[in-house]
Amino acid sequence: MSTFDTVEESGEEYPGVAQFKTGVGDTLGGTPVFKRRSYGSSCGSSIPSPETEEFESLEKSFREELEEKLHERKISESERKISDISNRERKLSELSAKLADMSSEDQLSLQLVEKRQLRSFSRADEYLYAMKEDLAEWLNMLYPNINVDAENFMDTLQTGEHLLRHANSVRKKHADILEMIELGEYKRKPPSFQVPEADLPIRENVVPGTWFARDNVYNFIKFCRLLQVMEVVMFETEDLVSQKNEKHVVLTLLEVARRGAKIGMLAPMLVQFEQEIDQELAREEKEQKKREKEEKEREKQMREEEKARKKREKEEREKEREEERLKRKIEKEEKDREAAKIIADREAALQKMQDDMDLFPSLAVEVQDDTVMDDVEDDFQSVGDYENDFDEYDEELEEEEEEEEEEEE
């Protein structure tokens, strides 16, 4: 271990700082001179000082603490990796359960590649490398004699021979599907894309970078355009021949694999996951539409019930009004009959009095008695008032009906 000592112009030592004799005994420019030495080597003594022992003990404790923290970090990293593995296994089991629940038609249209452990990627180049691995495994399963992997992916495909062989396989599968549809053996919709009527010509055993290799790649690009692959995804001839743009080559092959998966060809793992997600989204959308339809039917039923209830209430009110109207009509007729009877009786009484006066003129006495006629007039007035009351009631009923119709509207 080592420490620093100072030497001042006055030769006075600083308190709390270990001394160091320069050996030359001078200062530089009036400032303290700092020099470094090891105890036991320059002091002429092998006995360590208290400051050295304290420093060594601190260093030892620091190292022990650092080793303990590193050990804890390693343990936490291992635990995190174990939890990640368990989560991935759980996701894989969920995907397997979903595949088991798929219908037979969905399983027929999607051929599966062997499951791999899910991985997370922090950079785009890692993800691109993983896609190349997925496509290489897919091509090896389709064509075992290729022997392609992520390392020699572009070297193997740059002549375009294997790409054209796969294009002819897609064309043949497309033709088989159309034939099965014509025979009624295939109940799904026909493919939405087109393929060439005849197999694409393949120039075999060509040298990479030559005109023949470029012709093969160009024919495959034309085939991709027939499959309706988007131009923004498509690679160019130079991208594959000169290996300039791996990304677009990989994306184009994935698009071709998606078209092939729609007609029942083997699908890469990435396309497989995409189709599972699409099926899950379609199932959720179907359930959502079903729930919305049921909700609309319930609302419609509630509106119909409300409408029927209002209709019943209206019919009941009309029935009550009709009964009230009929009751008032009967009362009016009774009043009319009573008034007519009273009038007839009084007219008969007056006629009898007139006859008696005609028989006995000597008994005739002029008496101003208008009470009888007043009573008759009162009866007529009461009948007229009753009719007016009945008309007012009818008007009130009509106003109430109009207000109810406006509320219903």
Task: Explain briefly what this protein structure is.
With about 400 residues, the protein is mainly α.
Q: What is the helix tally?
A: 10
Determine the strand fraction and express it as a percent band: under 5%
- Computed structural class: mainly alpha
Q: Average pLDDT, to the nearest integer? A: 76
- Main sheet: strand order: 1-2
Ends: how far apart? 100 Å
Overall, the morphology is elongated
Return Rg in Å: 55 Å
Beta strands, count: 2
* Unreliable parts: 1-46, 103-118
Please outline the major beta sheet. 2 strands, antiparallel
State the helicity in percent bands: 55-70%
Q: SSE order in H/E notation?
A: EEHHHHHHHHHH
Structure description:
This protein has a two-stranded antiparallel ribbon with strand order 1-2. Helix 5 packs parallel to helix 6 (211-226) and helix 9 runs antiparallel to helix 10. Helices cover 67% and strands 2% of the residues. The protein is elongated and about 165 Å long. Mean pLDDT is 76; it is low at 1-46 and 103-118. The protein starts with a strand and ends with a helix. The protein has helices at 50-101, 104-109, 124-142, 153-157, 161-183, 211-226, 237-241, 246-262, 269-359, 371-408; strands spanning 2-5, 35-38. The longest helix is centred in the last third of the chain and has 91 residues, at 269-359. The protein is mainly alpha-helical and 409 residues long.
How are the SSEs placed, and which strands pair?
Blueprint: E1 2-5, E2 35-38, H1 50-101, H2 104-109, H3 124-142, H4 153-157, H5 161-183, H6 211-226, H7 237-241, H8 246-262, H9 269-359, H10 371-408
Antiparallel strand pairs: 1-2
Helix pairs in contact: 3-8, 5-6, 9-10
